[in-house]
Specification:
single chain; about 200 residues; 6-stranded mixed sheet; about 15% helix
């Protein structure tokens, strides 16, 4: 079963993202919870002695662009779960799904303190109105949560690519292997994943 419900009309053309989807804030440092969609840059890592000696160090800044989200899913959330590997934010969903990386706090029960048995989350994608999905909270680890998102995004991209054109943020133009997961933010009784793609500084 597909994990999304396309907005009408979903076929043959995915609607263009609304005006808010084009707003970008250039060159900012990555914030932990990704409150505002835009382009954010990681700090340039300091060189290590080994990297200097073997010539592998490159003082290049890595930047990502957050997927646009509706205004009600921007701003400071009431709760947030972040995702990183060795302190570096925004691992690739494909690496998480294939167990190529170990998330920081991988086995931590990320929602245990809320006392919930179930909650909901929704995949935000420009041009689509996706239905919220139920999520069992008991024993839910950070890795399990990330894999839940990864599986849904993979299915969404597979299914939506057949009904979209090459417009801005079109599923047809996005490869699953390029999608990164920054955080899960909680707004108005629903969790929303903060997704990103690599971009130039």
């Amino acid at each position: 079963m597909s994990c999304y419900r396309p907005a009408y009309p979903a076929y043959p053309v995915v609607p263009q993202p609304p005006a808010w989807a084009h707003a970008r804030e250039q060159g900012q440092r990555l914030d932990a919870c990704s409150f505002v969609p835009g382009v954010y840059c990681f700090p340039i890592p300091p060189p290590t002695p080994a990297a200097i000696l073997n010539g592998s160090y490159r003082a290049e800044q890595e930047c990502i662009e957050y997927f646009p989200r509706h205004p009600e899913f921007c701003g400071r959330p009431s709760m947030s779960v972040s995702f990183s590997v060795h302190g570096h934010p925004a691992p690739y969903l494909k690496d998480i799904l294939k167990d190529r990386v170990l998330l920081d706090g991988a086995h931590e029960a990320v929602m245990a303190e809320n006392g919930w048995s179930r909650t909901r989350w929704v995949l935000e994608w420009p041009g689509y109105n996706n239905s919220p999905r139920g999520l069992v909270v008991a024993g839910l680890s950070r890795t399990a949560l990330a894999k839940e998102v990864a599986i849904c995004v993979a299915i969404f991209l597979r299914d939506a690519a057949h009904h979209s054109e090459n417009s801005a943020w079109s599923p047809r133009g996005v490869h699953f292997g390029d999608v990164r997961l920054v955080a899960m933010n909680y707004y108005s009784r629903v969790w929303v994943p903060v997704l990103a793609l690599d971009t130039d500084p």
